[in-house]
Amino acid sequence: MVDVGDDAPDFSASLATDDIEPFRLADRIGDGPIVLAFFPAAFSSTCSDEMRTIRDEFDRFPEACTVLGVSTDLPHALAAYREEYDLPFGLVADPDHDAIEAYDAVADFEGYGVDVVARRSVFVIDAEGTVTYRWLADEHGQEPDYDAVVDAAAGAIAPN
Fold first, then answer.
1. Which of 54, 48, 55 has the alpha carbon at shortest distance from 73?
2. What angle, 0 to 180 degrees and rounded to 10, lies between the N-to-C axes of helices 146-155 and 45-57?
3. What CATH number corresponds to the domain at position 65?
4. Catalytic residue chosen out of the listed positions 8, 42, 47, 152
5. Residue 140: what pLDDT?
6. Domain that holds residue 133
7. How far apart are CA 12 and CA 58, in angstroms?
8. pLDDT > 90: what percent of the chain?
9. Between the CA atoms of 43, 144, 87 and 20, what dihedral angle is there, to the nearest 10 degrees?
10. SS3 at position 151
11. Is residue 7 in a domain?
């Protein structure tokens, strides 16, 4: 289980921004805090509420912070989802489950022919690559404490 104080596990996936491109977490370490917001499924109700809330709170995150949503959806689905909800942050497509397994953010799901999805969770990683915040949903439909996530991102900035 990844916990506060651990080195952030690396993973590779696809990143949906204005384009779809390869993504490797290790390449982003050192640029400032990183918020990884794992969510089960694009276009579902609670996930959409969560991503819209992060969108609406986006200006509260430190400028140096990289915010990323992460799900097991395919890259093109996440690109459409990002556009539909006008999300100002990238979405990481993890259909091979590399990220969710690395972060122990796996949720069993027996619907629509899908066995596994991301467990709703949030990790904040500082510029040194250390996990400084971890939150895991305890129940279906639970959302993170957004103030705590923003505070954790601000606290992950190294003092000058």
1. 48
2. 50
3. 3.40.30.10
4. 47
5. 77
6. 12-155
7. 24
8. 74
9. -80
10. helix
11. no
Helix (H, G, I), strand (E, B) or coil at 131: strand
The single residue listed with the structure tokens 């969560």 is: 50
Domain annotation covers residue 6: no
- Tell me the per-residue pLDDT of 62-84, one tens digit each, with 9 for 90 and over: 988 999 999 999 999 999 999 99
Average pLDDT over residues 8-19: 96
**What is this structure's pTM?**
0.93
Q: What gap in Å lies between CA 17 and CA 115, rounded to an integer? A: 27
Is 47 an annotated catalytic residue?
yes
Q: Are 147 and 138 contacting, i.e. CB atoms less than 8 angstroms apart?
A: no
Number of domains composing the chain: 1
User: Among the residues of the chain, which ranges form H helices?
Assistant: 45-57, 75-84, 98-102, 146-155
Q: How far is CA 15 from CA 3, 65, 95, in A?
A: 24, 16, 12
Q: Kindly report, residue by residue over 74-124, the tens digit of the pLDDT.
A: 999 999 999 999 999 999 999 999 999 999 998 876 665 667 788 999 999
Task: Give CA–CA dist 5/2, Å, rounded.
Answer: 9
